[in-house]
Amino acid sequence: MPVREGKKNRTLTKNRGIIFVVSGPSGSGKTTLLKELVRTKGLRRLLVKSISYTTRERRSGERDKRDYFFISARQFRQKRKAKKILEWTKYLGYYYATPKDFIDRHIKAGRHVVLCLDLRGASRLRRFYPRNTVTIFVVPPSLKTLSERIRKRCRKTAQEEVRQRLLLAGEEMHSRGSYDYRLVNEDFARALELLRGIVVKEIAKKQRTR
Predict the structure, then answer these.
(1) Which residue segments constitute the domains of the chain, with CATH numbers given?
(2) What is the percentage of the chain residues whose pLDDT exceeds 70?
(3) CA-CA distances (angstroms) from residue 139 to 60, 87, 155?
(4) Residue from 109, 112, 157 nearest 132 by CA
(5) Tell me, what's the pLDDT at 182?
(6) What is the pTM of this model?
(7) What kind and span of H or E run contains 37?
(8) What percent of the chain clears pLDDT 90, i.e. is strictly above it?
(9) Sign of the alpha-carbon torsion through 61, 88, 31, 48
(10) Which of 1, 81, 106, 145 has an alpha carbon within 20 to 30 A of 153's alpha carbon?
(11) How far apart are CA 124 and CA 85, in angstroms?
């Protein structure tokens, strides 16, 4: 089955938007799927892509408050201490975090937010918004395919890092059963169609509860 639904009995809170959290191992295609999802006809005006804080430098072509909220390490620590951050991670020496006020503002206005997070981040979002979070795990067709994708995208990466990515991917795959939906990404166009179907279904379900 390309899509499997979890057995959770989940009732979304009325008059608030849904938070769609998409996870999956490196090479699963989750980021590209999410990027295309927010562009699809019929969903462009319904979905808001979450914007993260980051302490890294802005790259060419990036815009503050569009691609990221660019902040200093000191500002990050202040926001974390003030509980203005829902979840965070550190990658290559820089912090990345989900801003609480951004999520709160949009879901309180009834808008639906989409974001990519790792397993820990997804768990944190569910803890903060247990009745408004829908989790989707993107699965590769097989571990062999996943290994090929990771090696292809990391040709210039040290073999030890590739090995670590593969080990982490295996661990993440074992946790996919805790998600509301599991989506197999074998053919991209089909996977995007299935992801869109999940989102439309959950939005329609929420509207019926009003």
Answers:
(1) 3-50+111-208 (3.40.50.300)
(2) 76
(3) 32, 23, 22
(4) 112
(5) 92
(6) 0.82
(7) helix 30-37
(8) 54
(9) negative
(10) 1
(11) 11
